[in-house]
Design a protein that fits this description.
This is Alpha/beta hydrolase fold-1. InterPro entries: AB_hydrolase_1, AB_hydrolase_fold, Sec-Metab_Biosynth_Hydrolase. GO terms for molecular function: hydrolase activity. Residues 6-244 form the AB hydrolase-1 domain. It comes from Achaetomium macrosporum. This protein is an alpha/beta fold. The chain has one domain: 3-Layer(aba) Sandwich (Rossmann fold). The chain is built from 11 helices and 9 strands. The chain has helices spanning 20-28, 51-67, 82-88, 94-99, 123-126, 150-154, 160-169, 175-179, 209-217, 234-237, 239-254, and strands at residues 5-9, 33-34, 72-78, 105-112, 136-139, 144-147, 173-174, 196-201, 224-228. The strands form 2 sheets. Strands 2-1-3-4-8-9 form a 6-stranded parallel beta sheet, sandwiched between helices. A 3-stranded antiparallel beta sheet has the order 5-6-7. β1 (5-9), α1 and β2 form a beta-alpha-beta unit. The termini are close together. The relative contact order is 0.19.
Length: 255
């Protein structure tokens, strides 16, 4: 059995470079990893961005080229990436494609301290009171958002040197992508029963553990859960544990 390709959807303000240690760890376990920066990150047209545009990009640029090549995919989503990622996965499960006589498809979903959004919900609407955290800096003229004190927000348990490297890679994120509604997600679908997982981060200053736990608990579906004593970037602070968990689920969900 060939291993599924891992499609990694980055979080807000982040690019694939941030996940280099995790990508390298997965490649060392013989996995192909595909990832691209989302259109809403570092955009020159931030007012034109949305969850729908990010979702279409994930589907057309990341998922379909692999799936239409007859390959299986494990979809790994971080943070905001859970909103457009789960939307992009709709109707692309391996089970649904097999039923239609097609090869390839998504064998499983892994959320890494990511938003589990329902149709019509946005990242912003998922926050308490529908208000951004104080560390989100909005520029209403440009339509961009940046982050105050990213070391504390994203990298609280990452070494200073690695945190500085990661901070240097951060880019503005289009506000409209954070506040626009998500389309129908794939995660509630029965085809993913026994094939959805969540990596919970217990020391997370971005999406607090209590919020992650509530999203999973009240989702109405079952999850394979692992808990890490980690901040919001376990791909940097707990690289081996994340890589091993993702690899384990990729094999289990593809079998």
């Amino acid at each position: 059995m060939s291993l599924p390709t891992i499609v990694l959807v980055p979080g807000a303000w982040h690019s694939p470079q941030h996940y280099t240690p995790l990508i390298d760890a997965l490649k060392a376990q013989k996995y192909e990893v595909v990832s691209e920066r989302l259109p809403s990150v570092g955009s020159s047209t931030p007012l034109d961005q949305s969850v729908a545009k990010d979702s279409a990009f994930i589907k057309n640029a990341l998922l379909l080229p692999v799936i239409n090549g007859g390959k299986d995919v494990l979809l790994l989503m971080h943070s905001y990436g859970g909103c457009p990622g789960a939307d992009a996965a709709k109707d692309l499960s391996k089970a649904e494609r097999q039923a239609a006589g097609k090869k390839g498809g998504i064998v499983g979903l892994v959320f890494m301290c990511a938003f589990v959004a329902s149709e019509g919900a946005s990242l912003k609407s998922s926050l308490p009171g529908g208000v951004y955290d104080p560390w989100v800096i909005q520029n209403n003229e440009t339509g961009q958002t940046t982050v105050d004190n990213p070391k504390n927000v994203f990298y609280n348990d990452v070494s200073d040197a690695q945190a500085q490297w990661a901070i240097s890679l951060l880019l503005p994120h289009a506000e409209h992508a954070l506040s626009s509604p998500s389309g129908p997600p794939a995660w509630p679908d029965a085809v993913f029963n026994g094939k959805r997982a969540y990596i919970q981060t217990e020391n997370d200053n971005t999406i607090p553990f209590v919020a992650q736990d509530a999203m999973v608990t009240y989702s109405g579906v079952q999850w394979d859960i692992t808990k890490l004593q980690s901040g919001h970037s376990p791909f940097l602070s707990h690289t081996k544990k994340v890589a091993d968990f993702v690899a384990e689920k990729a094999k289990a969900y593809a079998s």
